[in-house]
Amino acid sequence: MHDLVIRNGTVVDGTGAPSFGGDLAIDGRHIAAVGRVEASGRRDLDAGGAIVAPGWVDIHTHYDGQVSWDPVVAPSAEHGVTTVVMGNCGVGFAPVRPDGHDFLIELMEGVEDIPGTALHEGIDWGWESFGEYLDALERAGRTIDVAGQVPHAAVRAYVMGERAHEEPGATEIAEIAGVVADGIRQGAVGFSTSRTILHRSRHGLVPGTTAAPAELIAIAEAMAATGRGIFQFVSDHQGGGDDQAWMAEIAERTGVAITYSLAQSPFAPTAFRDALDEASARAAAGQRITPQVPARPTGMLFGLQSSFHPFMAHPSFRPLRDEPLERRVSALRDPELRDRLTAESPRTRDRSAAYLATAWHQMYRLGDPPDYEPPAGASAQAVADREGRSPQEVVLDWLVEDEGRAFLFSPLGSYVDQDHEAIRAMLEHPATVAGLGDGGAHCSLICDASFPTYLLTHWVRDRVRGPRLALETAVRLQTSATADTYGFSDRGRLRPGTLADVNIIDLDALTLHGPRMIHDLPAGGQRLVQPVDGYVATIKSGQVTFEDGEPTGARPGGVLRSH
Questions:
Q1: 3-state secondary structure at position 144
Q2: 72 by DSSP, 3-state: which?
Q3: 203-234 pLDDT, tens per residue?
């Protein structure tokens, strides 16, 4: 007798192989059989033709602080994710000296838009080394497995203190590399850094952003000496330009695997194809460089509840910024105030904010269900031109919909041609995997932790503005492909002996609802979540953690360490 048998499902095993009708048996923490299962189970789950797939492996999240207080690890766990990798983009909370807590919180708040008050209240500091951080995480049960990477900024601060933003000398570089290697030996699955000017706090750029190749290569050499670990980064160059030289040297000299986030840049719309060609060339040479591709355009959600909207810096709106939502909605319906706002321009020294506030051609009504592939004719500018109004008037109407709870979608990357064709080209490339959902981060402006679900709803079932992805491809991109990127050989496939991480999904009923703002972080902090229907059950290490979208209370997850 098996512990659990899932019967009559459409098995999508995570490898990209064709799906088939069959059963799946689980004993303890592992899959016992796949195909036709004659033996009974202590519990049988009738999948009734639903998809039976591996649990999603999300390799780009920022739950580094949230895992200290949230045993569910929402919202990712609610979207079928059973394993996450944290510590991306060079920011995190270990290693840390006793006087360095505030600095790391400020970095995370500035870079990843996680409320500092929530981090101060929610994190129970009880570690210094990266290994001690993982030990602390192991003491609390959770629904999913978590893995961590050594963040460059934290290491810089640990070694250099207040000089973390300066360039280190040779001795300090050696110490930085040694601390990274220690972290990997203690269980970190990789190292991460940021190479983008978009990542900054009140102190300026994230420490390590402008690190010289010598420092990056020294770190990679130290990683190579441990025999494990992956080098992760995010960059303005999307893996091209100035990144190519040092990335190639790391790959050739050390053999360390590299992964980075890839999107179509509006400033170099075809550069992503060069990055894909480079990844293919490296693969042919036996080197692993894996671009992570977002499932939809990288962008922001503007609204009266989010941390930004087009009228935020208008003089006439500023007195309303701290008013209750109902008061702001009422005020924005007043014709006199609307006339003033329409006539004004944003008053800010932040050129990026000024641009975003007036980029009417790339502002769209998100709606519910949300539309992340709107045509050019649906932009605020296009609607205004058709209706003989100003785009400001159109956007004001959109902002007060649903009593001020509606959102506008402003796609920044991978939407140059107002469609998803560039994204499709990247997702279909053999060298890429799905990534950059940023679960746990960007609490008030971005809500992309739903990427795993979107790969099924939009790319497999609903897309009408171009070709779709095969179900098997969409599943592989976020199971075996992501697991293999980090060397997680025990998951990501439905095979006897692998970890029993399983999703049962009613694809017909799978519904991704519009984002909503909730206030459940420590100290009442807010965050965006995206509710979903259609996950019949999620199983982690043989235990049912979610059933019909509701958590069961099971806590089979733990800390996944390098080995």
A1: coil
A2: coil
A3: 778 899 899 999 999 999 999 999 999 999 99
**b (16+ CB within 10 A) / e for 443-460:** bbbbbbbbbbbbbbbbbb
Q: Which amino acid is at 366?
A: L
CA distance 406 to 142: 32
The SS3 of residue 457 is helix
Q: Which pLDDT band holds residue 322 (cuts at 50, 70, 90)?
A: very high
Tell me how far apart the alpha carbons of residues 423 and 431 are, in angstroms, rounded to a whole number.
14
User: What span, in angstroms and rounded, lies between the C-alpha atoms of 13 and 431?
Assistant: 20
Report whether 232 contacts 90 (CB < 8 A). Answer: no
What is the value of pTM for the model shown? 0.96
Distance, CA of 540 to CA of 307 (rounded, Å): 35
pLDDT in tens, 462-472: 999 999 999 99
Q: Rounded distance, CA 492 to CA 496, Å?
A: 12
Three-state secondary-structure class, residue 148: coil
Contact 240, 289 (CB under 8 A): no
Contact criterion met (CB below 8 Å) for 61 and 448: no
State in Å, rounded, how far the first CA of the chain is from the last one.
33
CB 105 within 8 A of CB 120: yes
Name the CATH superfamily housing domain 1-62+70-76+436-553. Urease, subunit C, domain 1 (2.30.40.10)
Q: Strand, coil or helix: what is 554?
A: coil
Chain centroid offset of residue 70 CA = 17
- Token pair, residue 436, equals 């950059």
Cα–Cα distances (Å) from 516 to 28, 70, 370, in that order, read 37, 19, 11
- Rounded CA-CA distance 114/51 in Å is 34
Provide the residue ranges of all domains of the chain, joining segments of one domain with +. 1-62+70-76+436-553, 300-413
Structure-block tokens of residue 399: 């902002």
Please, what sign has the CA dihedral across residues 332, 333, 336, 339? positive
